[in-house]
Amino acid sequence: xxxxxxxxAHVQLKRTYAALxxxxxxxxxxxxxxxxxxxxxxQMLVSMRQEPTDKLARAQQALGQQxxxxxxxxxxxxxxxxxxxxxxxxxxxxxxxxxxxxxxxLKQLVDLDQIVNRKLTREKSIYK
Length: 128
Description:
Helix content: over 70%
Number of strands: 0
Radius of gyration: 17 Å
Number of helices: 5
Strand content: under 5%
Structural class: mainly alpha
Order of helices and strands: HHHHH
Mean pLDDT: 94
């Protein structure tokens, strides 16, 4: 795969990372607001989480467009890397490392979101 394709994907993954971190920070603040029973802050923070969600969607859309422009072989390799496959070349390493970092932040975000969701909705939680 060409270095430019790897770099373009890496840029989108860095944008994803930034949006995930922003969402994680807002979710931490949301958890604190829930613990304080501060309904105004809860409502504000819930609505603020839309912005990083939109950023994530735009990064994923851009990544999808980049993949569509690749050859079938390169697209398959990029898909494998995005799913956590190990780097096969030195050029793939930054991308593979970013995927791992994004996965760790996403796991933290999902875990915290489950806790907050259960506190807010109790038995009506979307998480079973």
